[in-house]
Structures are given as C-alpha cells and as structure tokens.
C-alpha cells in the first residue's frame, strides 16, 4: 500500500479526531489503570522541579552562615525523600504500564477474534484487513503512551515556567518559544522515521514469513 511522503494538516486533524475514540475505548477496557498512569505522569512531571527547588535551598543553606546545621540536615533529608519518592513512583509506574499493556493487548485481541469470526476466509488474504487486525492490537496502546508522555512533558513545562517566573519572567518566556520551535523538528524526524519503517514493513514481513515456514514443519501454504 502506498503511503504519502508528507503528512497534511487534514490527515493530522483526522488523527486528532481518533484520540477521543481511543480514550473512550481505553476507558471501557481499563479505566482504573489508565487513570493511575495519568496520575503518575502528572506526579512525575512535577517532581523534577520540586527536586530542583529543594537542591537550590540546600545549596543556599550551605553557602549562607545564617542557617544552622539542623536546617541543612532537614533540607538534605527532604531532598533524599523526594529522590526516593521519585524513584519509587517511577518503578510503580513502570509496573502499572506493563500491566496496562498486557491487559489492553489481551482484551483488544479478544475483540479482534470475535470480529474475525464473522469474516470469510478470503478476507484474511486481504492485505488491508490483515494490517488493520495487526494495528488494532498495538495502535491504541501507542496513542495512550503518547498521551501520557505529553502529559508528563506538559506538566514539567508548566512547573518549569512557574519556577522561572519567580526568578526571571523574561527567561521563562524562552520555555514557551523553544518547545514550539523544536516541536516541528521532532515531528519531521518522527515522520521520516515512520516512513522508513513503513517502507521496510513488506520486506520484514516477507522475511518473517519465510523464516516461519523454514522453522515450523507444520506450517505450509
């Protein structure tokens, strides 16, 4: 199947329109885990700025003579506590993320199997139907992962701007300009990476199919 080398605005809007449907589907299948991942992504986005603020206070307490040792120790212990919480949340989030991926993959594959029972044998030889059945098992998870990553980045960006505005409002404006400029470059790189994998998909599938036939004596066509 031929794919266009440029992603137009109309196609991008179509992808954005599919996101609410995907979120609705995920809510139907795994609402609890999805909300936990969103909560962890928000906390993960805030913790770096909290850690930065505490480390700043720790350095200031070491430099100035006015604060006694007990204050320095309390700030240091707070910094260790935040670092420990950050690592703990990262591990718990990774666990729930793996569980979420397995549950979503299983439930989506189950839905595909139920729908596939209504298809004729000739439909399974159709490349478009074959590709769609394969995409269903991982595309929603990829979209959700993108949403979670964007949520973490957005929270980190907002907290960074708020932190810098208390120090220098002009510098904080750079955090609004730089991400917008870099966004276009990341989209371009991601688009080119997608097209490279897309063009290799046919050869990779053919290689896998030949390897499968050669290594499984019960498979034939």
Automatic annotation (TrEMBL):
Instruction: Report the locations given in the UniProt record.
Output: Cell membrane
Mark the transmembrane ranges.
Answer: 33-54, 69-89, 143-165, 171-190
GO MF entry, a single one? ATP binding
List cellular component terms (GO): plasma membrane
List, for all copies, the residue spans of the domain called ABC transmembrane type-1: 37-190
Q: Which domain of life is it from?
A: Bacteria
Which Gene3D superfamilies does the record match to this protein? ABC transporter type 1, transmembrane domain (1.20.1560.10)
Q: How does it sit in the membrane?
A: Multi-pass membrane protein
* UniProt cross-references to PROSITE patterns, sorted A to Z: ABC_TM1F (PS50929)
InterPro entries for this protein: ABC1_TM_dom, ABC1_TM_sf
Q: Which UniProt keywords apply?
A: Membrane, Transmembrane, Transmembrane helix
Q: What is this protein called?
A: ABC transmembrane type-1 domain-containing protein
Native organism: Bacillus subtilis
């Amino acid at each position: 199947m031929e794919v266009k080398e440029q992603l137009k605005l109309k196609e991008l809007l179509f992808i954005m329109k599919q996101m609410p449907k995907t979120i609705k589907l995920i809510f139907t299948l795994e609402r609890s885990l999805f909300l936990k991942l969103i909560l962890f992504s928000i906390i993960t986005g805030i913790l770096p700025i909290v850690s930065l603020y505490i480390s700043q206070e720790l350095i200031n307490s070491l430099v100035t003579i006015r604060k006694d040792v007990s204050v320095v120790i309390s700030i240091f212990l707070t910094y260790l506590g935040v670092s420990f919480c950050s690592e703990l949340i990262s591990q718990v989030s990774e666990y729930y993320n793996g569980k979420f991926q397995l549950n979503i993959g299983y439930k989506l594959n189950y839905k595909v199997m139920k729908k596939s029972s209504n298809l004729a044998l000739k439909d399974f030889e159709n490349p478009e139907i074959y590709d769609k059945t394969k995409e269903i098992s991982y595309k929603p998870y990829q979209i959700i992962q993108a949403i979670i990553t964007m949520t973490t980045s957005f929270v980190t960006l907002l907290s960074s701007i708020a932190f810098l505005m208390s120090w220098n409002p002009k510098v904080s404006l750079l955090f609004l300009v730089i991400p917008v400029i870099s966004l276009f470059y990341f989209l371009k790189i991601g688009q080119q990476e997608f097209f490279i994998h897309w063009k290799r998909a046919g050869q990779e599938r053919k290689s896998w199919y030949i390897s499968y036939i050669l290594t499984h004596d019960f498979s034939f066509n």
